[in-house]
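Practice problem: predict the structure.
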Amino acid sequence: MRILREEGAGRLRGVLHCFTGGPSLARAGLDLGFYISLSGIITFPKAAELRETVRSVPLDRVLIETDSPFLAPVPYRGKRNEPAHVARVAEALAELHGVSAGEVCRRAAANFHALFRP
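Answer:
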């Protein structure tokens, strides 16, 4: 984060891919204008600390991902991950934020287009 701040302050757009960090890393990334991308890990039983951090990430800065073929969400954990499973990540994120999965999907799509604009 120090290097990103020094080298790109105010000029960078980016993603903290497959985020598994804590609240300080999330805040540092958000302060730089980055998006936080979440995978099936947020559904894992032992990921309570990550879920707590994710609650503090605003939905207008969230992306969802499969990280396929790895990190399949519960109930597919241990199997080959595939794009269709991203719906489980959206459902878990919706539960954490108290909104519908459809709302999470709409926000994530808008965030994708905002980040990867030409």
